[in-house]
């Protein structure tokens, strides 16, 4: 019996780690996607869709006879809601709710030691939890983006959908917005994972990040480069003109924005992975 | 004779009168916070701002000091409604929000998580006393950083300026008091209800932060794209409700530029929304504060 | 025995800020059942968490069968751990819980299922395996934790207060499981304040107090090392008469009359000889003895002696 575990559990190596990674992602996904835990994030994800649909329906009802609403106008409305509401509030708080809890939630339910006692490198654990959170948040808000996008065809009618998507700019725009959504989840996700892991009281850094992204339009150019909003705003394919909204005057080029976000997320994740090696179990406070 | 009866003596000393028992709960509600560095630092900052305001008021009336510093009076701020709104009340209300974020969600959450609610309620304390005590702690804290310094500053200005000023600016004092209490009520009701329903402190804090910011964003977006006749969506945003009611209280004691970006909403409906919000929170609270709960 | 069989602490200290967790612990724990015994707050859990890598020592070095606790890939295979907290990831069934962490360890699906069942049957929880852990009783939770700890067949099992909350039947079953498990050269480390369990169960004890290890080794050895001659308390009508006879026995080293004149307290180096003679003396003198109470029949006396004795015996 003694040797049994050595026979069936392969010796440490990349194959084993990959298997552990997928197993943990699966377990975490099941935990995060089921039950009431997902409800706040789900509400945040669906609310803008409801708003866009309502707007579409109202416009359609109030249509003067003979008016033909243009899809391009509706795209502008979408872009506005997307930047001012979806990115700024929904994705932000959705990611906070999901990623802050990846480690803090386990500490609060006093079950983190089960993970730490598994024969899994802690770096693998960080990566697995992050991927699970990313999949959850990414899927939720891709849902928001796609459903919200569909709402823009309500005023003009869904017969516009095919032509606009296939022959017009529709597909490219939608794909860009979905891409931005994933990048946002990646950036905010990395930040909140690290915050939830490193800080005992994650609300302070969260409030700080919220305030930082909020005052972003007033920041000097150099500091602007240190905010997720800056890069996300640069990527928006449709210009948005709303006063005091965190869109950049001087957008970063696309490769810089995407690369910058990727690098930033990687750096934050790296920090989290480095710090978790010395993390101690302390269920005492809270 | 049972063993315990031989040594058991019931307590015969004086008891805290029933009416004052909430004070016992209140005393311990924030007891653990006084050791927290973040809390203490925030409190110090929150109390420093009024001191700075007091210095400005004092300086404004001290001609000899002004000439000593070679400052022209006209360069200094006027001590008027503007000053009290933008320089005193608004920063203090932000400070109140921050303090609530720090301690509000903890009040009941900590007891829930530790299973201490049955302990409290097994004493001669009613549920109302318990909630009252917890609320009193928060309300006391928030009072100390909002209306108390506000009225003190108003009193300072009145005493330096002479009795005429006080009579003319009575409305200002009322507005300071009213706006502070509106915010205190909103914050305490929200955070108590949240802390009773959300078991984990960081989650409750995140909820509170979300409830104070997300509806504002939504209200903006709704107003932008739905093009309603008034900004009705603002009714669901506690922070905007404060702005609207505060503007109503200050009325024409401040110049119009303080009201740029003010949501367009009938004043009465804003007050009604505040009342409904608080009522809903209290209802949620009474549903949850119980000596025992059935899990699942 | 080579160091790779042992759990070695080398001058290990752990401070929680200002608070002392454990101080200057040097131990080499061999295979078999080892009990950590000490009052609340004496550092038992701290020591266990240190050897599992859940805490980092402030100073000193730890090796578990030659593995550093900072290497989870190796340590997790070698060690199974039960915390003293009764907490579980939310929303799982008993079976799901055990299986989840086998999967996370990298076992294949069918193997994980098989091992999870095996472990659950071993702790006697098969009927409840498909119910939610949240709905388990305290004893069931203790057992499902145990199942989780043994499911991957570790060589070292570290259990923090594993007998806490078990009924006598379950306790006997679990103790049998421990004996069986520790049979094959494996190490089992348990902590407890309930001394009778330790007495019956362990090959070694480590006595702790206020963060220090104050004695370690075989339980009889520990007792021999620290106890004075055995103590007996007698309650009788004429203790003076009895005392006069008892002091003549050469293995009796001390006799003390109780102040109320209703009994005496004595220390003897030969308990069996004393009991044999006592009967004769009683008959000869015609004494009426109320009670005879040995004061340190078990490890309790050792414990009290070491820890400074404000316990409940005596
Ligand atoms: N997270 C912590 N922060 C600060 N001090 C701690 C912490 N955990 C333990 N201690 C302190 O370390 C000392 C040892 O605690 P430990 O939990 O190891 O005791 P124990 O022997 O397991 O007690 P028990 O029998 O009650 O479980 C105690 O003084 C305790 O107060
Ligand atoms: Mg312990």
Overview features:
heterotrimer, B: 296 residues, mainly alpha, 14 helices, 71% helix, globular, C: alpha/beta, Rossmann fold, Alpha-Beta Plaits, six-stranded mixed beta sheet, 37% helix, disordered C terminus, binds adenosine-5'-triphosphate, binds magnesium ion
What is the annotated CATH architecture of the largest domain in chain C? 3-Layer(aba) Sandwich
In CATH terms, what is the fold-level topology of the largest domain in chain C? Rossmann fold
What value does the Rg of chain C take, in angstroms?
24 Å
Specify the helix fraction band of chain C.
Answer: 25-40%
Overall 3D form of chain C: elongated
C-alpha termini separation of chain C: 41 Å
Structure, explained:
Chain A has helices at 4-8, 14-33, 39-61, 71-108, 112-117, 122-151, 161-167, 170-198, 203-214, 221-224, 228-235, 254-276. With 286 residues, chain A is an all-alpha fold. The longest helix of chain B has 28 residues, at 170-197. The model of chain B has no long low-confidence stretch (mean pLDDT 84). With 314 residues, chain C is α/β, with parallel strands linked by helices. Chain C folds into two domains: 3-217, P-loop containing nucleotide triphosphate hydrolases (Rossmann fold, 3-Layer(aba) Sandwich); 225-304, 2-Layer Sandwich (Alpha-Beta Plaits), CATH 3.30.70. Helices cover 37% and strands 27% of the residues of chain C. Chain C has helices spanning 44-51, 72-78, 94-105, 109-122, 138-150, 168-182, 195-201, 219-226, 239-246, 271-285, 299-307; strands at residues 7-16, 19-29, 32-37, 59-64, 79-82, 156-160, 187-192, 204-209, 212-217, 230-236, 252-257, 263-268, 289-294. Chain C is elongated and about 80 Å long. In chain C, 41% of the residues are buried. Mean pLDDT of chain C is 82; it is low at 308-314. The A-C interface holds A 1-2, 4-6, 8-10, 12, 16-17, 19-20, 23-24, 26-27, 31, 34-35, 106, 109-111, 113-122, 277-278, 280-281, 283 and C 49, 52-56, 70, 72-77, 79-81, 83, 85, 87-91, 100-101, 103-108, 111, 148, 152-155, 184-186. Bound molecules: adenosine-5'-triphosphate and magnesium ion.
């Amino acid at each position: 019996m003694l040797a049994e575990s050595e026979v069936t559990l392969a010796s440490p190596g990349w194959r084993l780690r990959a298997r552990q990674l997928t197993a943990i992602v699966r377990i975490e996904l099941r935990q995060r996607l089921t039950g009431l835990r997902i409800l706040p994030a789900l509400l945040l994800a669906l609310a803008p869709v409801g708003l866009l649909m309502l707007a579409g329906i109202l416009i359609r009802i109030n249509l003067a006879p003979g008016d033909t609403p243009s899809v391009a106008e509706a795209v502008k409305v979408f872009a506005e809601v997307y930047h001012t509401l979806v990115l700024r509030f929904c994705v932000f708080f959705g990611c906070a709710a999901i990623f802050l809890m990846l480690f803090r939630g386990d500490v609060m339910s006093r079950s983190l030691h089960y993970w730490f006692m598994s024969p899994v490198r802690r770096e693998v654990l960080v990566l697995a939890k992050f991927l699970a959170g990313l999949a959850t948040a990414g899927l939720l808000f891709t849902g928001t983006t796609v459903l919200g996008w569909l709402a823009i065809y309500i005023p003009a009618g869904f017969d516009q959908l095919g032509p606009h998507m296939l022959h017009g700019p529709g597909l490219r725009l939608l794909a860009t917005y979905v891409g931005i959504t994933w990048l946002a989840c990646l950036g905010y996700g990395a930040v909140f994972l690290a915050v939830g892991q490193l800080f005992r009281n994650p609300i302070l850094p969260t409030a700080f990040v919220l305030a930082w992204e909020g005052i972003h339009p007033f920041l000097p150019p150099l500091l602007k480069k240190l905010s997720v909003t800056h890069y996300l705003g640069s990527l928006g394919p449709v210009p948005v003109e709303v006063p005091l909204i965190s869109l950049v005057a001087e957008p970063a080029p696309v490769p810089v924005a995407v690369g910058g976000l990727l690098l930033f997320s990687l750096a934050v994740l790296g920090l989290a992975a480095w710090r978790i090696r010395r993390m101690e179990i302390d269920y005492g406070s809270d | 004779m049972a063993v315990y009866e031989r040594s058991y003596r019931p307590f015969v000393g004086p008891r805290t009168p029933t009416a004052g028992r909430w004070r016992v709960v209140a005393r311990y509600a924030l007891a653990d916070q006084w050791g927290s560095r973040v809390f203490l630092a925030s409190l110090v900052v929150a109390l420093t701002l009024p001191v700075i305001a007091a210095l400005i008021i004092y300086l404004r009336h001290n001609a000899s000091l002004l000439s000593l510093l070679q400052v022209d009076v006209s360069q200094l701020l006027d001590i008027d409604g503007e000053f009290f709104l933008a320089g005193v009340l608004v920063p203090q209300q932000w400070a109140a929000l921050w303090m609530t974020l720090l301690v509000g969600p903890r009040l009941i959450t900590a007891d829930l998580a530790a299973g201490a609610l049955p302990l409290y309620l097994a004493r001669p304390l009613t549920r109302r006393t318990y909630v009252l005590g917890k609320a009193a702690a928060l309300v006391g804290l928030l009072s100390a950083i909002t209306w108390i310094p506000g009225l003190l500053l108003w009193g300072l200005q009145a005493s330096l300026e002479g009795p005429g000023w006080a009579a003319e600016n009575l409305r200002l004092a009322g507005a300071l008091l009213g706006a502070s209490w509106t915010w205190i009520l909103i914050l305490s009701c929200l955070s108590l209800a949240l802390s009773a329903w959300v078991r984990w402190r960081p989650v409750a804090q995140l909820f509170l932060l979300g409830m104070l910011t997300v509806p504002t964003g939504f209200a903006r977006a709704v107003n932008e794209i739905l093009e309603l006749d008034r900004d009705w969506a603002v009714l669901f945003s506690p922070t905007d409700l404060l702005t609207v009611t505060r503007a109503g209280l200050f009325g024409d004691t401040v110049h119009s530029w303080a009201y740029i970006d003010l949501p367009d909403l009938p004043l009465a409906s804003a007050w009604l929304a505040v009342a409904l919000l608080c009522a809903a929170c209290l209802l949620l609270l009474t549903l949850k504060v119980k000596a025992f709960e059935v899990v699942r | 025995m080579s160091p790779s069989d042992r759990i070695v602490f080398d001058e290990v200290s752990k401070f929680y800020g200002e608070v002392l967790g454990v101080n200057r612990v040097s131990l080499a724990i061999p295979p078999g059942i080892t009990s950590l015994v000490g009052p609340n707050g004496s550092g038992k859990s701290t020591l266990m968490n240190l050897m599992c890598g859940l805490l980092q020592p402030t100073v000193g070095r730890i090796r578990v069968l030659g593995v550093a606790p900072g290497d989870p890939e190796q340590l997790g295979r070698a060690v199974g751990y039960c915390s003293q907290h009764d907490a579980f990831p939310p929303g799982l069934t008993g079976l799901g819980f055990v299986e989840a962490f086998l999967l996370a360890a990298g076992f294949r699906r069918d193997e994980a299922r098989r091992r999870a069942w095996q472990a659950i049957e071993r702790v006697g929880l098969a009927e409840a395996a498909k119910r939610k852990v949240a709905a388990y009783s305290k004893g069931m939770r203790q057992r499902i934790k145990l199942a989780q700890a043994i499911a991957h067949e570790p060589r070292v099992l570290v259990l923090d207060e594993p007998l806490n909350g078990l009924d006598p039947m379950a306790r006997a079953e679990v103790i049998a499981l421990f004996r069986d498990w520790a049979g094959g050269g494996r190490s089992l480390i348990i902590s407890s304040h309930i001394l009778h369990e330790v007495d019956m169960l362990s090959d070694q004890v480590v006595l702790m107090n206020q963060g220090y290890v104050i004695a370690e080794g075989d339980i009889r050895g520990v007792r021999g090392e620290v106890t004075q001659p055995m103590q007996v308390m007698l309650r009788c009508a004429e203790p003076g008469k009895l005392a006069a006879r008892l002091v003549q026995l050469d293995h009796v080293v001390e006799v003390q009359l109780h102040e109320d004149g209703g009994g005496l307290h004595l220390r003897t180096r030969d308990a069996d000889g004393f009991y044999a003679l006592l009967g004769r003396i009683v008959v000869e003198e015609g004494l009426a003895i109320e009670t005879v109470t040995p004061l340190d029949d078990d490890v309790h006396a050792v414990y009290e002696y070491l820890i400074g004795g404000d316990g409940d015996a005596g």
